[in-house]
Amino acid sequence: MTDDEILGKLKSIFAETFEISPETVKMETHLFEDLDLDSIDAVDLAIKLQTMTGKRIKPEDFKSVRTVGDVVGVAQILLVA
Amino acid sequence: MKANINYYWRLVATGGCFLVFGIGALILSAVVFPIMQIISSPKKATRARWVISKVFGIFLWLMQTTGVMRLEVIGADKLRNCRNVLVLANHPTLIDVIALISLMPNASCVVKRALWRNPFMWGVVRAANYISNLEPEALVQDCAADIKTGQPLLIFPEGTRSVPGRALKFRRGAAYIALSSDVPILPVLIRCDPPTLTKGAKWYKIPNKQAHLLIEVKDVVNVSQLMALGDPPAIAARKLTLALEKYFSQELSTNGKSAP
Hints:
The structure holds 2 protein chains of 2 kinds. Chain A is mostly helical. Chain A has helices at about 5-20, 40-55, 60-65, 70-80. Chain A has one domain (about 5-80): Non-ribosomal Peptide Synthetase Peptidyl Carrier Protein, Chain A, CATH 1.10.1200.10. The mean pLDDT of chain A is about 90. By secondary structure, chain B is α/β, with parallel strands linked by helices. In chain B, strands 1-7-6-2-5-3-4 form a 7-stranded mixed β-sheet, with helices on both faces. In chain B, strand 3, helix 5 and strand 4 (about 130) form a beta-alpha-beta unit. The model of chain B has no long low-confidence stretch (mean pLDDT about 90). Classes of the chains: A mainly alpha, B alpha/beta. Chains A and B meet through helix 1 and helix 2 of A and helix 6 and helix 9 of B.
């Protein structure tokens, strides 16, 4: 999957789970500052990402995630793993 | 001149109160609770909470007798007898948590993780089996489990003390807990005028006149009175958080004399 395809999937996850409109979700968007996610949301997001990729995420891999681009990066690593 | 004497007296008394609090907490942590740990039954957390509540009550009496502050409580009996509720309060000052716990002899409370390593408070938070805010997922589950025991749970949804002059900002943890535990909310409004012992303020920065802490216990509200149910959890938590922020902001903007 390309980064753009993953970003597209993330946009729909953000819309369904957090009611965040897709146009505000860009690679450089900051999850906690711009999208007002909190640590509970980050856990939710990690679970959705597991469902999307079919792979398990290690909590420490997701701890350092700050931007939408970071999430895309984690998804890429999961997909090739 | 008279105002001056009063100021310096309150400054000395405030310092004295801090000293007493530190020594008291240390005695509880290092002597009283370890002894209770040895001799007491499975209900030791309940007993520890009772002891903390009483000691905080004495401490409040000391603060009022020395003139550091004046405490007024509207609806105290609603707190004393409450069961199966989530008690939510705003958090303008350090003193409000002491006052609330003194009014709720069996309450559990979500407390910041740092206090588990605080030189004075470590034994107190451990003995009382208070809930730490460290892991968000575990926090929601721990709180829901705690509420099932029937004892009230006290949470400050701001997650920390208020920033004076800024609009109230709630974190969403309290909303998740309210939604997952399905108990009503008991809102408690706290006003401190003039502000004192706010976030980041040094103990010796006391106000020019005696602080008046007004605690107003409202009637319980159900989540369904605040918002429509049926959304997925993350969205419901957002809606409930906004509704609670609005409720508290509106209620706090009145002068507090409308109740009971």
